[in-house]
Design goal:
By secondary structure, this protein is α/β, with parallel strands linked by helices. It contains 27 helices and 16 strands. It binds adenosine-5'-triphosphate and magnesium ion. The site of magnesium ion has 2 residues, from helix 12.
Length: about 625
Amino acid sequence: MAMGVGDRDGELDVEKARLLSLAIDFGFDEDSARRCLDRLISLYGDDGDEFITVEHCGDDFLAELAETMNNTEEWDDLHVAESEACGTLTDMFGNNTEDGFGKDYPKMANHGNVSAVYSIPSQKNQVILELDSCSGSESSEDEDVLIGNQSKRSRASPQEMKSKGSSFPSPILGRYSSESAHCKKNLTQSSKSLISSKRHCSQTSGSRQKTLSLMELQALDDMELANIVIFGNTAFRPNQHQACKASVANRDCFVLMPTGGGKSLCYQLPATLKQGVAIVISPLLSLIQDQILTLNLKYGIPSTFLNSQQTASQAATVIAELRKDKPSCKLLYVTPERIVGNSSFMGILNVLHRKAQLSGFVVDEAHCVCQWGHDFRPDYRKLGCLKQNFPNVPIMALTATATHPVRKDILQTLKIPKALVLEASFDRPNLKYEVMMKTKEPLKQLGELLKDRFKNLCGIIYCLSKNECADVAKYLNDKCHIKTVYYHAGLAAKQRMAVQKRWYTGEVQVVCATIAFGMGIDKPDVRFVIHNTMSKSIESYYQESGRAGRDNLPSVCTVLYTKKDFSRIVCMLRSGQGCKTESFKVAMTQARKMQQYCELKDECRRQTLLLHFGESFDKVACRNGSNPCDNCLKASA
Ligand SMILES: Nc1ncnc2c1ncn2[C@@H]1O[C@H](COP(=O)(O)OP(=O)(O)OP(=O)(O)O)[C@@H](O)[C@H]1O
Ligand SMILES: [Mg+2]
């Protein structure tokens, strides 16, 4: 039946009212929304019904509205951080080198003095393995091995372990032999410092300390031993051992673990034990930088990288290393662009494979494969070429953020349908989730929150834009006398490094940052993560808030929320996605879910987060746990 003019007018009014309330609900002001809507309707035709019959006109309207807002906030440009990350790596590894790892590597490795360059090891609590040599004899039969959470001062080499009766594959022994003398010396000194280090440990961490008898030591398999000796961990976390075993058995494997769950170990450890080189595909140079520094400087595992921003001679050095009969590097990090459509690199992989020196592929942050994921990288989509070209080389894919459809897509795209799927719970029981409505004076509210609840504690305050970072930090410093630094990709690389260092060393406890701060951040004792503006998706929120409490001690994740912030997110998404309507719509759907999380009145926030990743979770566990979310706390009051 044809629609009459009156019907159409009525429908248009209803639709206009719906769109206006949508805009208001998303935090836009009513006048701007009304002006924008009238303009759109007149653009679409005399009576405007062409506009309202367009599917998803709500998204189009919001996109248009976002553009008319002339938002002047400076969103962060992660590409800047990326190119500078490469600069840092190049500085460190480029100046030399016969072995492809840079002349500074052995020097820094021996002194363990990395904090001057980058702030990793001195912050790590757990890297140590000490032999209690009170007896004065290094090879004494009844010596125990003490492992625990202490600052890094000495480390036993696998040779030391072997002299105690354990077996260890020769490639490792060979590599560690140069460190042996250094380690032995430290070991004889260790008894003196043992008591003080025990005291230190009990003060700094709630983690267990454990003493292994020789019998226990001998019962360990190579992987368990490497976990202790090389990585300084007391034990495996859930699924790590299985993942390592799958890799050593050349089986494809898909590892799903929460942020900070310890995914890196799942491929770094087997790569160290296996013959040849593991190729690690990672999406960001800054992540690669972090990993390379940690592997070389902290664990002494030779690792290197190839990327498009290296000079020809730097790349040639790495390639020459790979062409050796037995390359000494154990892990080679590349961005996906290096693999996809790069025939010369494929040639190098072929040669490695023929020499039986290609130990496996690792696809880190594997959710980037997925088009509707939050960090889609088109070249990740083409990584199916790995299995096609090297069907017998195992692939390990890892991610912290994957809903069920995303997981399926990852396995399909990488062509590893039969991969062993290792899925740990995404729950982080030590994190308390809460949302607070912003008051009329949100900065004052933030200052009071920090003073009342997080005094002298280390934390991150996430902001949406560069200006917001600087403004919030200024307010906290000037008005609240809380020492605060800020960090975004617009700062020069040197400034960013300096900020990170001040925060890592505890000189400053609070950092206001955009999402540029976080890639590779691995500080164990972050006690709070406050979102001064909500994240753009649940996935991003889970990842950002997940930087709290990596030491498993209680920590708080707070969102300060107001509807108006959602309109800022829409503006950001609009300017970020440009005219790509489809991706804008996907991004909007994700942002709406985040908004729903913020607006939950009674539902358990932990359950909502986990449900988003397809994990069913009984909210009673949150309510009865030691860190219930704000809604569960309210319910049990
Ligand atoms: N078995 C273990 N025992 C103690 N600490 C561990 C263990 N495994 C990993 N860790 C530590 O946990 C921290 C987080 O590890 P890692 O960076 O691998 O996490 P991730 O799962 O890759 O996190 P993200 O999702 O943020 O990338 C690191 O400091 C690492 O040294
Ligand atoms: Mg990781």
